[in-house]
């Protein structure tokens, strides 16, 4: 099994990056490709090597926690690699873990590709297993995030640290202030989770690609 790759990102798309490892290009599908394209430095991407009858795929993650959560999600009936990837694009591992621990159906059904029945299966299958994940998760801190995740106005992100960091990273990729302002107008009017910087970047880039 391939546990991680270390190299330089030479190509990226909305769903994957290609990493040059000693003149071999590895395509890795990842929750947010733009996590890895902020500079030309060597990056380490933790992986899950997925083999099926018609394909051999590599999924890549910025942290061990993402990698571990991805593998746990695959244990849930009805959740395949693509859905698990979408879940991690929609929320931080510790926040997802806290929602499962707290049996927060409302939160879980806001994640991409998750309906009520699948959310119930996630709780049933994973609630007693997440403490065993190496490194663990800060359930108490994540619980605080969950309290306000869906209440009030989505404008709670306006001017917040997460959006400011995402905006700075996007500006470094060459986007203008006017383009980023337009992207934010689309983001702030849509229902959102308490998103990470990487998730905000991915959603902003989707808006920017629309023109």
TrEMBL record:
Its main location: cytoplasm. InterPro entries: DNA_helicase_Holl-junc_RuvA_I, Hlx-hairpin-Hlx_DNA-bd_motif, NA-bd_OB-fold, RuvA, RuvA_2-like, RuvA_C, RuvA_C_sf. Residues 63-140 are annotated as: Domain II. The keyword DNA repair applies. Pfam families: HHH_5, RuvA_C, RuvA_N. The RuvA-RuvB-RuvC complex processes Holliday junction (HJ) DNA during genetic recombination and DNA repair, while the RuvA-RuvB complex plays an important role in the rescue of blocked DNA replication forks via replication fork reversal (RFR). RuvA specifically binds to HJ cruciform DNA, conferring on it an open structure. The RuvB hexamer acts as an ATP-dependent pump, pulling dsDNA into and through the RuvAB complex. HJ branch migration allows RuvC to scan DNA until it finds its consensus sequence, where it cleaves and resolves the cruciform DNA. This is Holliday junction branch migration complex subunit RuvA. The lineage of its organism: Bacteria, Bacillati, Bacillota, Bacilli, Bacillales. The gene is ruvA.
